[in-house]
């Protein structure tokens, strides 16, 4: 018999071997190796076709950027990236994405009402049609206020929705923020309950991802500026909204997101309470603005001249 106060808890049972999990892992790795081999074959054939090799090189880039590197990242990040909350979203390839820099209280209708009142536009879902439209809009520099944002994952699922503000009609430059509903009973580190988490960044240009070579938006490094922009626009447009700042929610740090862009933050986490914002009040304000024919509001963006 053990001594009083001794730990009598039994060790957890050993994890059972699963044939399905083993097969899934095998074919996952096999597909990654096959993708690498395919990329090598395409690259080696490129040099045998003279000028036609340019087309083969484009094919090689497509295979490498959209098949090989994402597959390899998924294999490796399964090993070394934790699957619990660490204050970062993840890309579909498993890489660490944008930092979570905002939290909200309120139901979904209140969040939509608050964002719409603050002149934010809900982003379209990613489809073949919306993807093609943002490509053509970026090339031709034609406005696309509802342009989709790439999926990022938190709690094992992609964002519930996203909002954005296009800058001067250029889809390559935009404020944008993704929202995830928190699981039932989930608490922030420190024990605070919130209804939503969000990640806001500013797209400054279009370029290539450092990690996958895919075409993507490049973000501004100072994500605190974007965080504060989101909070200030919501508070200015919604008198019923309130904010509490969780100081030093995380240690201030600098890192890179899933596209290889530098990010830095002071670690503070604003918690916006929009639970008292109502759709009817927002609709009344919008109707009043239209009847008064108020001039269009100019969105101030650091480093961008508006006149």
Automatic annotation (TrEMBL):
Q: Which UniProt keywords apply?
A: Membrane, Transmembrane, Transmembrane helix
Q: Which domain of life is it from?
A: Bacteria
Give the matching InterPro entries.
Answer: LssY-like-C_dom (IPR025902)
What Pfam families does the entry give?
LssY_C (PF14067)
The transmembrane segments are 21-43, 49-69
Q: Which intervals hold domain LssY-like C-terminal? A: 79-269
Protein name according to UniProt: LssY-like C-terminal domain-containing protein
Biological classification of the source: Bacteria, Bacillati, Actinomycetota, Actinomycetes, Micrococcales
């Amino acid at each position: 018999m053990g001594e009083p106060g001794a730990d009598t808890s039994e060790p957890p049972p050993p994890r059972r071997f699963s044939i399905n999990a083993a097969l899934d892992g095998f074919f996952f790795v096999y597909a990654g190796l096959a993708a690498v081999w395919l990329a090598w074959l395409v690259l080696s054939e490129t040099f045998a076709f003279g000028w036609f090799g340019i087309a083969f090189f484009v094919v090689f880039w497509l295979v490498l950027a959209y098949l090989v590197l994402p597959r390899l990242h998924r294999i490796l990040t399964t090993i070394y990236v934790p699957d619990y909350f660490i204050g970062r979203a993840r890309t579909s390839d498993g890489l660490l994405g944008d930092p979570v820099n905002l939290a909200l209280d309120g139901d979904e209708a209140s969040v939509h009402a608050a964002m719409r009142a603050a002149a934010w536009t809900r982003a379209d879902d990613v489809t073949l049609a919306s993807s093609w439209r943002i490509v053509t809009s970026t090339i031709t520099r034609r406005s696309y206020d509802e342009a989709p944002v790439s999926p990022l994952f938190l709690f094992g699922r992609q964002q519930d929705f996203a909002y954005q503000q296009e800058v001067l009609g250029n889809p390559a430059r935009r404020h944008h923020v993704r929202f995830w509903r928190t699981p039932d009973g989930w608490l922030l580190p420190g024990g605070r309950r919130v209804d939503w988490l969000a990640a806001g960044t500013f797209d400054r240009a279009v370029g290539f991802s450092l990690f996958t070579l895919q075409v993507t938006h490049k973000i501004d490094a100072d994500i605190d500026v974007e965080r504060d922009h989101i909070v200030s626009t919501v508070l200015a447009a919604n008198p019923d909204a309130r904010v509490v700042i969780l100081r030093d929610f995380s240690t201030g740090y600098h890192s890179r997101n899933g596209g290889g862009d530098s990010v830095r933050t002071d670690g503070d986490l604003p918690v916006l309470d929009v639970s008292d914002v109502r759709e009817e009040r927002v609709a009344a304000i919008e109707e009043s603005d239209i009847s008064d024919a108020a001039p269009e509001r100019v969105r101030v963006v650091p480093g961008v001249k508006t006149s």
